[in-house]
Amino acid sequence: MKQFNKILRTGAIMLALAVPQGAMAQNVCFVDYKAKQADSAGLQLHYGVMRLQGPACSNTGTLEKRVAKRIAGDNWVLLRVLSQFDKSGAKQRRANAGQYFLRY
Fold it and tell me: Which of 11, 33, 95, 104 has the most CB atoms less than 10 A away?
């Protein structure tokens, strides 16, 4: 009986560790966005593509906050998130995003 309980506990632990990893792997998305930056040289704009993971992919408010926070490190201000898509959509947008493809 002790052996059986040990096997059940080990199986439960392994399952608990495996489920979050599998769920996380499926919860990946990409977004494209427009941003602006004002400095002494004038107004600059950029179009970018960003990879996100986790809850941001299923919550628009969280998604926008995450994008804004990442680009803010380089003094960019998010104008708007244009769309959300999968890996194949990211490949289609690579040329248009140029240096801002997966930069942040």
Answer: 33
With a CB cutoff of 8 Å and minimum separation 6, the contacts of 91 are: none
> Cα–Cα distance between 64 and 15 in angstroms, integer?
33
User: In terms of Cα–Cα distance, which of 33, 45, 30 is closest to 91?
Assistant: 30
Q: Compute the distance between CA of residue 63 and CA of residue 2 in angstroms, rounded to an integer.
A: 48
Angle CA(63)–CA(64)–CA(70) in degrees, nearest 5?
90
Domain definitions of the chain by residue range = 28-100
- CB neighbour burial string for 3-33, b if at least 16 within 10 angstroms, e if fewer: eeeeeeeeeeeeeeeeeeeeeeeeeebbbbb
Tell me the helix, strand and coil percentages in the chain, rounded to 5: 55, 35, 10
The topology (CATH level 3) of 28-100 is Ubiquitin-like (UB roll) (3.10.20)
State mean pLDDT over 9-23.
48
